[in-house]
Design a protein that fits this description.
The protein is an alpha/beta fold and 210 residues long. The protein is built from six helices and nine strands; from the N terminus they run H-E-E-H-H-E-H-E-H-E-E-H-E-E-E. The protein has helices spanning 3-12, 32-39, 52-63, 82-89, 102-114, 147-162, and strands at residues 14-18, 21-28, 72-76, 94-99, 120-124, 137-141, 166-171, 182-191, 201-209. Strands 5-4-3-6-7-9-8 form a seven-stranded mixed β-sheet, sandwiched between helices.
Amino acid sequence: MTPETEALIRSATRWSAVPFVPEVRLLTAAEPFALWDRTERDAPPFWAFPWAGGQGLARYVLDHPGTVAGRRVLDIASGSGLVAIAAAKAGARTVLAGDIDENALAAVVLNAAANDAPAVTPRLVDLAAAGTGDAEVVLAADVFYQRDMAATALAFLREARRGGAEVLVADPGRAFVPAGDLSVLVTYEIPVLAVLEDAPVKQVTIYQLG
C-alpha cells in the first residue's frame, strides 16, 4: 500500500460500525460517486461500503463459527474485507481476502488492523484467471450483480467446490444469482445505505453451493 493510496482511502471515508454486524467497523464513504471520480477507476469503489450481501455473510459466519474455525478461508471479491474479517473473528486459521482492485486490498489492510484480525491477508485475485489454492472454505458475497461477473464467479466457485472446498454465497436478490445451483441456508433482513440500494432494507439469502 502506497502512502498516496492510504491517504485517498482515509480522506474519503470515516470509521463506522457495520449496521448488521456491529462487531466490525469499517472505513466507509458517505456516498459513492465523488469517491469514484477520485479513484479514476472503471469500477465503483466497492471497498468503501458494507454491501448487503457482505453484511449477511459476515453475520452468518460470526453466528456459525464452526463453518470456518480452524480452516483455511478464501473470501473472493472481498471489497472492504468485511466477510474476511468476520471469518478471522470466527476463528479461521488463515483468511485470504481476494480482490482485483488494489484500492480494495489497501482498504482490507486498514480495516483488518482496526478490527484486530491479523489472520487476514489481502491478495490480488482475478476470478477469470486465478485458482482457489488450498482453501477449505470459499466465501462470496454480492458477486452476481452483472451477467459476465456472475458467470465468471460461478465458474470459479464451481471449481472450488470440485476441489473439495465448502462454498458459501450471499446475495440480496440480484438478477443473475444462479439459484438453481444453490441451497438456501438462511435469509436475513438487512439495513443498507440509501445511496447504494433501491430500498432501506434488503433481503439477503445465504446459500451453499452443492
